[in-house]
Amino acid sequence: MEGGEELKLSKRAGTIITLEELVEKVGVDAARYTLIRYPVNTPMVMDIDILRRNTNENPVYYVQYAHARIAGVLRNTQVLGISSDLSAFDPSQLSHDRENELLGALAEYPSVVASAAEFREPHRVARYLEELAGVYHGFYADCRVMPLGDETPAPIHSARAALCAATMQVLANGLELLGVSAPERM
């Protein structure tokens, strides 16, 4: 789709968009991600206008933004002296439903990658990353990672920062598997 109009691609009718044209219109990351996020045996509907936007409607932007948002959060926690070191992660500090949902989503990553490799279906990784980004955005909205105002950093802040670091690592690894960049700023 482009300009709200569906374009039926057909070599016979001469209505094709080359990969080069697609990359020109939406960029390398959006083109690659969009082509990967669909199973090979299903029709693909690609809305060029959405892929040009920096909004949550754009799936590659949504995932990359989650990664960049976490990078920003971790920069801020570092300034406050809050550790995000995974080796010191204390899961007993986490009790909020959003924290547990994020931990559960992170635990799915190895099996998602294994099944994507076994069945040669990279779209599984792309769809998982979108789900993980959504879970992270919910966590971010409901759980403060940094203390407010004069509040002293507490173990909960370190546990949440470590959870952020783990999420950022999984997003970066998944995007790398797909050949898509994982920006730290957007």
Automatic annotation (TrEMBL):
It catalyses: tRNA(Arg) + L-arginine + ATP = L-arginyl-tRNA(Arg) + AMP + diphosphate. One of its GO terms (molecular function) is arginine-tRNA ligase activity. Keywords: Aminoacyl-tRNA synthetase, ATP-binding, Cytoplasm, Ligase, Nucleotide-binding, Protein biosynthesis. Its EC number is 6.1.1.19. The keyword Cytoplasm applies. GO terms for biological process: arginyl-tRNA aminoacylation. Its main location: cytoplasm. It is found in: Cytoplasm. GO terms for cellular component: cytoplasm. Residues 63-186 form the DALR anticodon binding domain. Belongs to the class-I aminoacyl-tRNA synthetase family. This is arginine--tRNA ligase. It comes from freshwater metagenome. The lineage of its organism: unclassified sequences, metagenomes, ecological metagenomes.
